Amino acid sequence: MVQINFQKVLKQKGVLTLVRQIFPTLESSVCILSKDGKILLGREMTEQTQKYPVELSGEVFGWVVGNESACAISSLLSYIIKQEFAKKSLAIELLDRYQEIDLFFELSTQITASLNLQEIAQLAIEKIETLIDCSAGSILLVDQQTNELNSLCEFGQFGHLKSLLKLEEDPINQIINQGSGEIVNDLCSLGSGVDSQESICSVICVPLKTEEEVIGAIVIGSDNNVTYTTEDLKILNIFASQVAIAIEKALLYQQSLNAAECAKNQAQELQRTLGELQETQAQLVQSAKMSSLGEMIAGIAHEINNPVNFIHGNLNHAWNYSQDLLDLLALYQQYYPQPVPEIQEQAEEIDLDFLISDMTQLLSSMRFGVNRIKDIVYSLRNFSRLDEAERKPVNIHEGINSTLMILRHRLQGSTEHPEIEVIKDYGELPLVECYAGQLNQVFMNIISNAIDAFEEKGKNPQIRISTQVLDDDWVEISIVDNGVGIPEEVKQRIYDPFFTTKEVGKGTGLGMAISYQIVVEKHGGVLKCLSQPGEGTEFWIQIPIMPLGEGSRTCCYDSWLQKPLK
User: Fold this and answer.
1) Secondary element (H or E) of residue 52
2) Residue 233, SS3?
3) What is the percent of the chain with per-residue pLDDT over 90, rounded to a whole number?
4) Which ranges of 385-420 does DSSP label H, i.e. alpha helix?
5) For the residues 442-453, what does the mean pLDDT come to?
6) Rounded to whole angstroms, how far apart are CA atoms 293 and 362?
7) pTM of the shown model
8) What's phi and psi for 39, nearest 5 deg?
9) DSSP 432-466
10) Helix, strand, coil shares of the chain as percentages rounded to 5?
11) What is the pLDDT of residue 560?
């Protein structure tokens, strides 16, 4: 409401100067009074005079007292009052506009800084309530799948406004489709579909538009018989443009998050598939290696066993024949101590006494060699056990010993490295039901890696192999070396397929990956490594004595990390 102080208006420099310049030109005296009769300018009038009002739209602000000439002054002052009123009204309007602009800027700053749809809608609703008289409202968003309007945020008795969305001739959808805001100050005028008893009487609806499409709407209504104006519509349109920009940005952000999540899921799926392919490849490589090993062993067994058995069988006869001949020679020496000179010369030439003493040792050495060959072939067959595809009770120690037999040439000393001492600390183990050939492959991989570690450390190399029973249900095989140890970054990847620290051509990177698969997946056991650079490496193999049933433990010791390196 604009307030005019007539006394202050009269005292304005321009006004006061103008009035004082007019006063001397008048034929009689003039006095200007306030609304309540107080003299503001001039002297009190004693003679009979007229009072002329200074007014605007029927409201009196003061009086001009005098003869008829005073009427012109009252008209002048009334005009000045009118200008003052217009100026103050304009100032108030400009102030309101400035506040609106400031509010719009504040809203734009807040909602564009947010990427949350609910937060954006809530901020917009709160600001709308402060500027426009409304008792209910909502920000609606178009569902891209169903093309229906869903409430993002609402306040007041919005249920009355929701009834508009159910009309056969839906006014809100019509407004959205036409792409421009609209005022409805009499809902009953929309037709019989609107209940005249509804408390919401007036509605403003403006669409939320981006550059490409309409994405929703802002709807507000009032139950106070408010008549909305184009000014209210203009304000709501300004809000709608800001809210649409913020919602579009939030939707794009959500789409980017969804795309990133989808890409992440695809990457995980690809990684899983790659892992399965690598596992399958490792299994194929292992199968190929074991198949090749089996063919090699079958060939060796076929080519060696027959002649070895022939030699071994004939050695017994050769031993008996030689003993018979030596006994016969002894009888000749007993009954014919003085042989003819020709026999004496031949005996001296062949050193008969040495031949007699050495023949027994020679035949014993040959028998030992043949037995050694038989042991090697047995170790090869025991190591591979290709004919044992199913689990069966086996002696774990036999598998370890067979592995050591095969690796014996690498354990022996040479000019390049000293002999590697193997210390066996075997406990009393029962027969373990397992895939023996595959388990021997694990022993081969771990012991071979330990031997490789001594190529960098050639001082007193030692491998200790210990076995024991755990909790009557599990067995543990510990293989410890005093080699160079494994760095932490390498230890974290030793079970990764195709990871190797060896030179190209010296390692496939599948040995430990296959070992892990055999122990953990095939046998339901545990394979752990404890190592520190410069302090050696220990591998623990823990497997159940009998196959694990459903609900059985998958690990003997949960606190294996606290176990010290032996």
Assistant:
1) strand 50-56
2) helix
3) 8
4) 396-406, 408-411
5) 87
6) 34
7) 0.42
8) -70, 125
9) EEE-HHHHHHHHHHHHHHHHHHTTS--SS-EEEEE
10) 50, 15, 30
11) 43
Counting other chains too, the contacts that 374-379 makes at CB distance below 8 Å and 24 or more residues apart are: 374/308, 374/312, 375/405, 376/405, 377/300, 377/301, 377/304, 377/305, 377/308, 378/402, 379/405, 379/406
pLDDT higher than threshold 70 for residue 12: yes
Residues 457, 418 contacting (CB under 8 angstroms): no
Tokens 């579909």 label which residue? 193
Q: Where are the alpha helices (DSSP H) in 132-229?
A: 158-162, 171-178
Pick from 21-25, 55-59, 152-156, 488-492: least confident: 21-25
Map tokens 């390692």 to a residue.
507
Q: What angle do CA 542, 545, 547 make, to 5 degrees?
A: 100
User: How far apart are the C-alpha atoms of 59 and 3, rounded to whole Å?
Assistant: 12
pLDDT of residue 103: 60
CB 200 within 8 A of CB 155: no
Q: Which residue bears the tokens 């579009």? A: 248
Residue where the block lists tokens 């001009």: 64
CA angle 97, 100, 102 (to 5 degrees): 110
The CA angle 553-558-560, to the nearest 5 degrees, is: 130
Lowest model confidence (mean pLDDT) among 72-81, 113-122, 167-176, 343-352: 167-176
Closest to 181 measured CA to CA, from 238, 132, 242, 129? 238
pLDDT at residue number 544:
94
Share of residues in the chain with pLDDT > 70 (%): 76
- Parallel/antiparallel/unpaired status of strands 462-470 and 421-425: parallel
User: In sequence order, what are the beta bridge partners of 490?
Assistant: none
Q: Residue 206's CB: how many other CB atoms inside 10 A?
A: 26
Distance CA 376, CA 399 (A): 13
Query: What's the mean per-residue pLDDT of the chain?
Result: 78
Task: Render pLDDT for 273-307 as a digit per residue (tens, 0 to 9).
Answer: 887 787 677 666 666 665 566 666 666 666 777 78
Burial class (CB in 10 A: 0-12, 13-18, 19+), 481: buried
Question: What does the pLDDT read at residue 559?
Answer: 40
Neighbours of 43 (CB within 10 A): 9
For the segment 80-114, what is each residue's pLDDT rounded down to a tens digit?
888 888 888 877 776 666 566 566 566 666 666 66
- Report the alpha-carbon distance of residue 129 to residue 221 in Å, rounded: 11
Domains contained in the chain, CATH given: 6-106 (no CATH), 117-258 (3.30.450.40), 272-380 (no CATH), 391-562 (3.30.565.10)
Q: Which residue has the higher pLDDT, 5 or 397?
A: 397
Sheet holding 202-209, edge to edge: 149-156, 136-142, 214-222, 202-209, 182-184
Distance CA 162, CA 203 (A): 12
pLDDT band at 562 (very low <50, low <70, confident <90, very high): very low
Give Cα separations from 556 to 8, 152, 475, 528, 548 (angstroms).
Answer: 99, 55, 9, 12, 12
On the question of pLDDT at 431 being above 50, the answer is: yes
Six-digit token pair at 495? 């079970």
Contact call for residues 537 and 531 (beta carbons, < 8 A)? yes
